[in-house]
Amino acid sequence: MNGDDTSEADCGGQNSKSTANSNRERSDGLTVQPMSDGGSPNDDESADDEPTLAFRTDDGGDRAADGTDARSGDDAESATAESAAEVDAGDTPTDTESPLEGRPPSASPDVDLSAPKYYLNRELSELAFQRRVLHEAIDEKNPLLERVKFLAIFTTNVDEFIRKRVGGLKQQIAAGITEETPDGRTPGEQWREVLDESHELLERQAACYRDEIKPALAEEGIDIVDYEELSAAERREVRDYFESSVLPTLTPLTFDPAHPFPFISNQSLSLAVLTREHPEDDLTFSRVKIPRNQVRFIQLGDDEGNGDDRYVLLETVVRENLDLLFPDVEIVDTALFRVTRNAEVRRDEEVAEDLIEMVEEVLEERRFATVVRLEIEREPPAQILEILTRELDLDDREVFELDGPLDYRDFFELADLDRPELRLPDWTPQPHPRLGSREDGRSIFDVVRDRDVLVHHPYHAFEDTVQRFLEEAANDPDVLAIKAAIYRTASDSQIIETLIEAARNGKQVAVMVELKARFDEENNLEWAKRLEEEGIHVAYGTIGYKTHTKTSLVVREEDDGVRLYSHIGTGNYHSETAKQYEDLGLLTADRDIGQDLVRVFNYFTGHSMHREYRKLLVAPGNMRERFVDLVREEAERARNGEDARIVVKVNRLEDPQLVRELYNASMAGVDIDLIVRDVCRLRPGLEDVSETITVHSIVGRFLEHSRIFYFRAGGEERYFTGSADWMARNLDNRVEAVTPIEEPRLQSRLDEILETLLEDTRNRWVMQPDGSYERRRKRVDEPSTDVHATFMEAAWERTTRH
């Protein structure tokens, strides 16, 4: 390889196709450390694709997965890690079978691959992922404030899961639906099992904070104290603060014959208060909302130079000073509580006269949706609990009594303390070695025209790669048109501003804005209106499908004619999540890929979907069929005695047809590694069914969000990357694009990424046949490998070398 080739392909592994040439790790090479206390074995993108995660960025702040401030309430749920990602239109908890065009026979005629015993439950698999996320808070090998941050991440993820998945199950139960999922469970059975598992997880989170993290923080001089621990001077200080800064913002709402039960907003922390004027009076119930726009951790006193910081929680301050809010009455009892409302609100797009109006109605209805969970402090007063469960119409299973704080989302505040020794070192994404920085002066179009560029976030800076691609296009006099598909973007999106600038510069600009991106609907509505005000053609998606593809197209007039430049990525056009999510993107001047993208963008505006493409795999066109064919081809080669191998990296593997195809391939002898971050229906290691399949999951500093597909193909070695997971919703009910990677040096790059993931000894979990996960620990005789640290170091070295 020449210098450029080496710099682009080198990611810390060997410059060879090691994944293609190696067999998967066998069980005798696996050292595991089961978690013994319930912390053992789950960011759309998307919220609907990925869990919401937040990580330290180079600007010193912690941001939620949608780029908003971590304290921003419902906005912090949008991603999405993919947390959160991530339930959308076309992804209800019904979990029905994907359409099949003729099911292939099993490799063994005695095996019925549609039997429920071969499938894991989708909901329980997602909770297994959240258990792995919680382990990051439990793991003492992580820096203390990173553990605090994962408490907040876990809460955000589970909140979103309860809102979407549990809310959807409750709707099905109410509708009398009894259809079984591929694993043989009815909605009622899933609802009960999911809530039971959620109870155990939230209790483990509370114990982790109470018994492990809170004492560890105190040892480091970060002391979160109870009111009883305050000195007389501190109590006076707290009371003064409450009276001047908090009391004016509080509005008690009373429930009695003259006042209806107050509306309780989703995920708001509240204080239930029982009062009476005289001992013989009936008790009166009031609700006091703890304000979200106030600092949750109130620092006590001035720093006396001893290195200790003392904090008291805002809800504690409110509770202990209620006499100022309820003067001249007896405060009999109190209890902190928090409700979660269903987010599974549906509209029929086919009959909607105005998509914008429909989305606005969904947003309004979601505010008042059914309550699906009540969190309340341990051993609450019986009368308060009875009133809440009766008025909110809750089952006992939906009540979570917890011994600890009820909402850890604000713990992002704590994780942001200026204590760098208690965090991982900050990471600043680097320039791409071939593209360099903006100051280098070379046009990005010259580089891409020469040969394709593969960008890898967050190791490569989004601003110097993808954003620069569109910014140069906006200001290039030779560019005729720009087209982009926006699924999620930052609330202060430079990408949107760039597209507006392009239109002002006389370019033809067309933008597909997906209005139905879960929890980003309001943000996307605002951007769509802004774009239209600038005279830009805006499409709002297609009826019945959600547009999830992350693509852009630049049409440029050059000396030899019009040339098409394309970007096809796995992540959103979102500068903040690009610092936190691991994603890939291809910049290419390949004409066939460009022509395929022209067809995709024409579908957004003309609603005529092609089924045949020159190179791209497009859903709902040819993608399912192509993936099925690729798996079947490997199985056929294995049956013929050829060396066959499949490696797939996705966020979720849920589609029943592809699970069956993988089982058939395994029974034929294909060596298969599946790197699945989140939900996985497939059960590996089953005798005579999936003995050659290993399922891995990476959970660590960055949210693994890219999708990579490798097929040995008789030595031809086919590589793909793009936006689609192997889920029925992605293959059948979304617009997705996956591109082949054809240049050998970029194939080597993908191969090294996969190999490094499979060698990780710090962040990797391995699924067992029963669906549980065990943490991969390094053997004494092997080097320690952290995939995120490896790629950061390699990116830094490439930058300094160039």
UniProtKB/TrEMBL annotation:
Q: What family is it from? A: Belongs to the polyphosphate kinase 1 (PPK1) family.
What PANTHER family does the entry give? POLYPHOSPHATE KINASE
Instruction: Name the segments for region: Disordered.
Output: 1-113
- Which residues are catalytic? 548
- Enzyme category, top tier: transferase
**Single Gene Ontology BP annotation:** polyphosphate biosynthetic process
Position of the signal peptide: none
Pfam families per the UniProt record, alphabetical = PP_kinase, PP_kinase_C, PP_kinase_C_1, PP_kinase_N
- GO CC, alphabetical: polyphosphate kinase complex
Enumerate the cofactors the protein uses: Mg(2+)
Record's Gene3D superfamilies? Answer: Endonuclease Chain A, Polyphosphate kinase middle domain, Polyphosphate kinase N-terminal domain
Keywords, in A-Z order: ATP-binding, Kinase, Magnesium, Metal-binding, Nucleotide-binding, Phosphoprotein, Transferase
HAMAP family this protein is in? Answer: Polyphosphate_kinase (MF_00347)
Q: What is this protein called?
A: Polyphosphate kinase
Q: Domain Polyphosphate kinase middle spans what residues?
A: 234-414
Question: What's its catalytic activity?
Answer: [phosphate](n) + ATP = [phosphate](n+1) + ADP
The positions annotated for binding Mg(2+) are 488, 518
Q: Spell out the SUPFAM superfamilies in the cross-references.
A: Phospholipase D/nuclease (SSF56024), PHP14-like (SSF143724), PPK N-terminal domain-like (SSF140356)
EC id: 2.7.4.1
